[in-house]
Write a structure and sequence with these properties.
heterodimer; A: 200 residues; alpha+beta; Gyrase A, domain 2; Alpha-Beta Plaits; 2 domains; seven-stranded mixed β-sheet; five-stranded antiparallel β-sheet; 4 helices; 34% strand; B: 98 residues; Folate-binding fold; four-stranded antiparallel β-sheet; two-stranded antiparallel ribbon; 6 strands
């Protein structure tokens, strides 16, 4: 789905995605940047009062249980889910076809399923300085107690909307609009230069 | 200025969009009461103190919020969802227990 099909259809980051070590890597590589290219990125929204049915539908399809609380989420490395707004959730799967799996579970009386697989680019930042680098771009608290593993946050960088999920103690997945992804990627690379980064 | 979104927690004001005075009441769309429409469009309390306002967390969860802001000090004394049916999802409730 988001894989490169031909030399004409470049991935959105392609001209700027330079595999290898960059910045001050001679003193150690403290963050690793990559484009995860999930096959499915969905946005699910529940009508008011239908949130619990939607959450149980997410568990049925993905096997992921959503913890209580705003912005809570979970991940098993293949599939991820997190709340990004009241009654709204982002669900991601490495495989394609997640939208059709939800079609029979999230019925029109529960809520809506929107397939954003082509509309978002997923960028992963991992490493001991991931919090440090992201804190330069986003005005939110990245400390582990305030931003637990699995949780998601909606925020923005230079007016570009971004959803961030913590998928590990030192790892974050950032979902940005596909058309802004290259610009955001360049900003992320610049912010990572001082700590030394590797693009995979 | 920080606004504590009931869903997202404290965020910088740059993430929010002011959606207007929260005191005014819109007449029914079919209303032909010109005085009521005039009041809706033009009349403002303009208080020196606490003011009811509608804000949208446009750079976050995109929820519309009822905010009470002091126009003299910018102190925010209360923030709630403009639509009150998501209170159970508020993070502060969940975090307050832990």
């Amino acid at each position: 789905m988001v894989e490169r099909q031909s030399p004409i259809e470049l991935a959105p980051l392609e001209p700027e995605l330079r595999i290898g070590s960059h910045g001050d890597f001679e003193h150690g590589i403290d963050v690793i940047l990559s484009e995860t290219r999930p096959g499915s990125i969905l946005q699910l929204a529940a009508w008011p009062g239908q949130e619990k049915k939607l959450i149980s539908g997410i568990r049925t399809v993905t096997g992921l249980a959503l913890p209580d609380g705003a912005g809570a989420g979970s991940t098993d490395g293949v599939r991820s889910v997190f709340g990004f707004a009241p009654g709204k959730f982002t669900v991601v799967d490495e495989a394609e076809g997640l939208a059709s799996a939800f079609a029979n579970v999230v019925t029109p009386d529960i809520g809506t399923v929107t397939d954003l697989s082509h509309g978002r680019t997923a960028i992963r930042i991992a490493g001991p300085k991931a919090e440090w680098v992201l804190a330069k771009l986003f005005a939110i608290d990245f400390a582990l107690p305030a931003f637990p593993v699995g949780a998601g946050r909606s925020t923005m960088h230079h007016d570009v909307f971004a959803q961030i999920q913590r998928t590990g103690a030192d790892q974050f997945d950032v979902y940005v609009f596909r058309s802004f992804a290259r610009s955001f990627w360049k900003a992320l690379c610049h912010a990572s230069e001082e700590v030394g980064y590797e693009v995979q | 200025m920080l606004i504590t979104c009931p869903y997202c927690g404290p965020r910088d004001v740059i993430e929010f969009t002011y959606q207007g005075d929260g005191n005014r009441e819109r007449p029914q769309p079919a209303s032909q009461d010109l005085d009521a429409w005039n009041a809706y469009v033009y009349d403002r309390l303009n208080p020196a103190g606490d003011h009811n306002e509608i804000w949208q967390h446009s750079g976050g969860c995109r929820a519309h919020l009822r905010v009470v802001r002091n126009t003299l000090t910018h102190d925010i004394s209360s923030v709630a969802f403009a639509r009150g049916d998501h209170k159970a999802a508020a993070r502060h409730k969940a975090e307050g227990k832990s």
